[in-house]
Amino acid sequence: MITVRLPDGFTDAHRDKLQSLVAGQHGDDYELSSIDWTSRKATFVRRVEVVSVADDVIELPRHLATAAMGDRVATMIAEHYPGMVMVEFDPHRAIARFAELSEDERTARDAVAGVFGAKPWEVGVRARDGGGFVLTRLPKAYTPSRHDVRLAEVAETKVPGGRPGWFVRVDGVTNTGEIVPADLPTFPPLLPYDMRRLTRAHRDLIPVGRDLPAPGKELGEEFHLDFTAGAFGMVAGLPGGGKSVALNGIIAGSLAGGAQLVIVDTPDKAVDFLWCRDFVRDGGWGCESLEAAAAALGMMYEEGQRRAKTLRERGATNWLELPPAEQFTPILAVIDEYAALVTPERIPSGLPKGHALRLEVEERNYHRALIERAVSKIMAEMRFTGLRMVVSSQVANNSTGLGPSQKTKMGHRILAGANPSRAARTQAFNDEMSVPNVPGNVREDAAVSRGTGLYESEGRAPAVFKSYFARADQYRDALIELKSPRTTRPEPTEAEIAKYVPSMDGDDFPDDGPVASKLDAGGWGEQDGRDRPDPVLRGAAKAAHDLRVELGGA
After folding, report:
1. Residue 508 and residue 516: Cα distance in Å, rounded?
2. pLDDT (mean) for 296-321
3. Residues of CATH 3.40.50.300 domain(s) within the chain?
4. How far apart are CA 545 and CA 543, in angstroms?
5. CATH assignment of 225-500, given 3.40.50.2300, 3.30.70.360, 3.40.50.300, 1.10.10.10?
6. Tens digits of per-residue pLDDT, 222-249?
7. The pLDDT of residue 125
8. Using H for helix, E for strand and C for coil, what is the string for 14-65?
């Protein structure tokens, strides 16, 4: 207790100044208790800090039971109870709790509190059996989108023992969690395709591989193409990246699920798919020539037109609206080396118009244009008829026939390879920034990285994945055992090629360019008078004129 003599002229208006004077001389622990106006004396009393302590709970006096006094109470506990720290401060209930924490627990607690900008006692931490830490309490401000990334960084770099691979698991309902020791997620060197899957294959969900596992897991979620979410897809990547492995799995899964198959490839690369040559639909092997490729796709498109007519007659807008027993059989076209198939050759300069070499190049370019046109029309017009397509190319850009307008129709995009360039990512994906990178530990392990890649697929979050693997003969044997339908005439016949790819030497070939395919037959239709030839062209001649104009524009 301190007694202070009051100067003459002192009034109630001077109380605050007197309080400041005493605090400056004796410390701010003293409060004005009473004033005796007769004797002109003021009495100051030092506050009592703690009124009671029971076990690990401190009952706080009124002046300490405010949010601003947390640091002071924590300091007081540390001074009076060596080795103890405040683990809870509740000014509303006027209590504080203290406990003994190890140095590692204190360090972890401080690191987690820093993520939230919170006080250490607002986070509960204790050592976890088996390593790591249990988060017994997190601030109520926890939000996964705001805090999970920073918590993961804390687990790997801030807490004692933390290293890459450690992860945080949080229950957002109870605001509790764990910091769990683990190795970095990775893949096994090989993910075998389980041939038993083919005996119970799904018509529309085609397995491709598995996602990179979540932290602490051995295997990730299965990655499959959902053809009901998107009928068309793309597999891009440089040679050796694993495109053929992924395509073989898609083909086998689709055939086992009951789909018909069309294969289009360059003659030199078709060897990759010889294992399934006799599993294509009649005339579906478009690999021996550009004409065969155009014909196989032309027949597929015509089947789509037939189905579209049936749907119109039934009043349906999609083949999946039909009763299950009446739904069409899906047709999957796999088109490999797309750029090599559709990129026009340069016409040698200086050759006269009728030169044999010039005509030969022009005819090949005509066939390439038919292939590109068929692919474009199937994707633009036939997604509702059960026609499906997966296009494979090393590069996906305008110069290879896979520009933005084409790729927007592709709901599934796969980029094979563990270390694609930024340009390849940008060309392959709609939103490149949302697609993760292959982690360094996977990328740098030659065995693990084989068969890995990235995807952006309808109905799924973008992810890193690894393809299932099986040899081509294993797929073939399994499909034979399943008695999957086989054909006795895989290649288009001469008559079919003549029908869908009219020769440039035919009678319908006009003076101004090659004729078009069956895809564009049908005559001029209604006219507005623009660019109308004389005499009026119809059927193949009209289509040839249109195609010539398109090729000239390209």
Report:
1. 10
2. 96
3. 225-500
4. 5
5. 3.40.50.300
6. 999 999 999 999 999 988 889 999 999 9
7. 96
8. HHHHHHHHHHHHHCCCEEEEEEECCCCEEEEEECCCCCEEECCEEECCHHHC
